[in-house]
Amino acid sequence: MTPKSPDTPAPHVALFAGSFDPFTVGHDSIVRRALPLFDRIIIAVGTNAAKAGATPAEDRVSAIRAVYASVPGDRVRVIAYTGELTVDLARRLGARWLLRGVRSAKDFEYERDMADINRRIAGIETVLLYALPELSAVSSSVVRELKSYGHDITEFLPQI
User: Fold this and answer.
1) Which of 13, 30, 131, 146 could form a disulfide with 103 if both were Cys (CB 3.0 to 4.6 A apart)?
2) 48 CB contacts (<8 Å, ≥6 apart)?
3) Catalytic pick among 33, 77, 103, 144
């Protein structure tokens, strides 16, 4: 990143964190709709040592990078992380906002509580984008289940 002069505003960077196992058309919709709001979006693929993912984190990172290969410059960056709170990662990376998607009232309640805690402990704001109505039923867990029963999940994954 190029050093900024004192009168140059800091870039507007958001962190979009999740397991993304798999990264769905719903996730892609959130990122693409948020791009006009931020200078850069960092997609952070989180891994939990207590939970075995269906796909290795490195494979998820590579697949997501391929989705955004045509986005100019460093507007979308994809990384893997483990072993730290998302807000600590955000601060370390210079992200001042957490980006989250909301599909339902249940999601909203959870995200509101997390946003309040994250603001309190780290001073980081959360930006919520609602899922498009046609994508509100799409979740990684549903897509994984469909795949486990041999269903074609192509329509639920971003096309490269």
Assistant:
1) 131
2) 19, 82
3) 103
